Amino acid sequence: MKTTITLLAIVTISAATAFSQSTLRFSGVCSKDDTQDSVEMIMAGNGEKLNVKETAILTEKDIQSAIPFKNKEIVGLALKLNPEGIKRFSDALPSLYQKRMAIIIDDKLVSAPKILLKRANAQMQIEGSFSFEEATNVALAINKAEPGAAANP
């Protein structure tokens, strides 16, 4: 069973972000009046300001693999979590449901999808308003691969 997380923001990532030394974290987004233990970040691409929790929900260590995909007009990433990632994401889901989760690569806020699922499993999809190239760059960062390693759609 695949779970869908719909992105609310456009992801803009430069090719330099995708190389093997990238760091990745997924963190909760705070409401404007709840800024404790958070830092203000500006979204790449659209300049939106969000208060992002400093504690990571998931890191690159929690994700086994990421594969970009394109299905008609929908572009996204298929993510496979390892057992620790499933546990961490499951523990965080009650407080994340119908809220946003920040995706941060190399200390740059690249996206903040709204979480539309109630339980975690090993595989999930992130879909949104980004190009296949941008999805590939995120997958490369997650997989710690070299440029050109991802397959074409």
Order of helices and strands: EEEEEEHEEEH
Q: How many whole angstroms does the radius of gyration measure?
A: 14 Å
- For the biggest β-sheet, the strand order reads 3-4-2-7-8
**Structural class of the helix and strand makeup?**
alpha+beta
Please give the count of helices. 2
The count of DSSP E runs of length 2 or more, i.e. the number of strands, is 9
CATH topology annotation: Gyrase A, domain 2
How would a textbook summarize the main sheet? 5 strands, antiparallel
Shape: globular
CATH class: Alpha Beta
Strand content: 35-45%
Oligomeric composition of the shown chains:
single chain
Q: What is the helix fraction of residues, given as a range?
A: 10-25%
Number of domains: 1
Overall pLDDT confidence: 76
Keywords:
39% strand, 153 residues, four-stranded mixed β-sheet, disordered N terminus, single chain, 9 strands, alpha+beta, Gyrase A, domain 2, five-stranded antiparallel β-sheet
In brief:
It is built from two helices and nine strands, in the order E-E-E-E-E-E-H-E-E-E-H. It has about 150 residues and is an alpha+beta fold. A hairpin with a 2-residue loop joins strand 5 (about 65-70) and strand 6.
What does this structure look like?
- The protein is of the alpha+beta class and 153 residues long.
- The chain has one domain (3-143): 2-Layer Sandwich (Gyrase A, domain 2).
- It is built from 2 helices and 9 strands.
- The chain has helices spanning 83-96, 132-143; strands spanning 3-6, 24-30, 38-42, 49-59, 63-71, 74-81, 101-105, 108-111, 123-128.
- It has a 5-stranded antiparallel β-sheet.
- The two termini are 22 Å apart.
- Mean pLDDT is 76; it is low at 1-20 and 145-153.
